[in-house]
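Inputs:
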Amino acid sequence: MAANWQRGLMRLMRITNYPTEVVRVEDFTPWYRRIVFRGPELTASVEAFPALWLRLWVPNPAKGQDGLAQRGYTVVAMNSVDETFSLDFVLHDVAGPAGDWAKAVSVGERVEVALTPAKIDIPHDTKSLVLAGDSTALPAINSWLESVPSEVRTMVFLEEDHTDRDKLPRVERENGSWEWVTREGDRGAALARAMSVAATHQPGLYAWAAGEKTLVKHVRLVFREQLGLDRAHHFTQFYWIEGKATG
Ligand SMILES: Cc1cc2nc3c(=O)[nH]c(=O)nc-3n(C[C@H](O)[C@H](O)[C@H](O)COP(=O)(O)OP(=O)(O)OC[C@H]3O[C@@H](n4cnc5c(N)ncnc54)[C@H](O)[C@@H]3O)c2cc1C
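Outputs:
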């Protein structure tokens, strides 16, 4: 009962849970997995936009046999024609209900998802877009790269230590740069240094970042203090916290 208070609250708020079925699993690396879902009701009623994410309900054995946990994942490749969408999972070493579920998933499994869409509107006169984060933000970064007009210059800064990071899915743009950053010390410290060197304040600049909490703190400081961006020109979000389960 207590395990599922979030479901009760969402029911009260009339937030729909959509049924989905796993139809395919694709591994880019041993630690980054795409799961393709069929979800006709979802794809018929939701329009995708950059960084759209959903709440995935997965079993949470720690909360008993029927326990469920809710975790955020970014919607990838939504397709209303074949009624599918995908989620890209970082299969992290530390146990967690969503990561564990994704590691053990099989085709045909059914799970529910819920959405509370909140669109981020970037100013219409944006000329350059800085996108930063860790691999949990990669699906959202790719969705930005797919969506912004071709004349917008994009600069991606991604902190990721795995040596096979080049195998991750990456949307290419003519008018864009991509910098992998290897962690040194605090999460996000090296990322912030790389951004400070490569990105400069300029008219029409917008910046977006997500990932681990400490990483986001470092990056946000660069957005505000070095790039001089006010609230209307940047957005940051913690996606996870090192050493702490979500919820
Ligand atoms: C809006 C939003 C969008 C997101 N989109 C994505 C996405 O597209 N892909 C994706 O992979 N994640 C995404 N995340 C992050 C994901 O929800 C978290 O990583 C979540 O903690 C995973 O849940 P879990 O049940 O596996 O682990 P939890 O039970 O939350 O945590 C258990 C332990 O695992 C650790 N942990 C959690 N995530 C990681 C990680 N990535 N690396 C190392 N250790 C970790 C925690 O610190 C904790 O110690 C998103 C989060 C939000 C809020």
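Remarks. The chain has a mean pLDDT of 94. The CA atoms of residues 16 and 103 lie 26 Å apart.
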